[in-house]
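Researcher: Here's the sequence for the chain we discussed earlier.
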Amino acid sequence: MVFACVKCLLVAVFSLFSCVIFAQGEPSTQAKPNESPFDANEVIFGHVLDAHEFHFFSYKDGDGKVHQAIIPLPVILYSPQKGFSFFMSSKFHDGEDDYKGYTLITEGKLKKLDAKKYHAGQIVAVDETGQISETMKVYDFSLTRNVIQLIIALTLLVWVMLKIARRYKRGEGVMTAPKGSQSLFEPIITFIQDDVAKPNLGRKYSKYLPYLL
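Model: Thanks. This is the structure I predict for it:
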């Protein structure tokens, strides 16, 4: 029952998302001659791929100036010549400015560089003239968007699993039907136990089951 509800919800969400994308992707008959058409791939991948910030949307003010709604993330860099550097990604101003001898490679800059050596979103060292320094090695330990999302997902998953474990320890869902998050995760736990752990680990499956989960 729960699985069917989740499945229906996912179908509805993806159907609505597809309709919105296709509706936005249709060329407007009133578009200006110099105005570029809507690129759905650019929007989607701009939010999915890794980055040094969370970008939500862009908007124009009354003067026509474009503003970005973003949450900058911490940048942690190390180079043998400069040591450690800590600052927020907003210091790059969307890649337009250099900061502390580093620059952020954007799609515009990448067109002028070797795509095999660099990629969009990479932070590299620059010299006094603003040119990329080929001799300075940069190690990036920044908390990027993917890292933050992994930490959030891990935190939520651990919280949910500990909550379920406490319920089972109190006897809930053992002699009675599981409720709430128990009923959602029990099929997953049962699958890992019966189809993965037992066939491969034999009698010692219960010892290693928490690691598999």
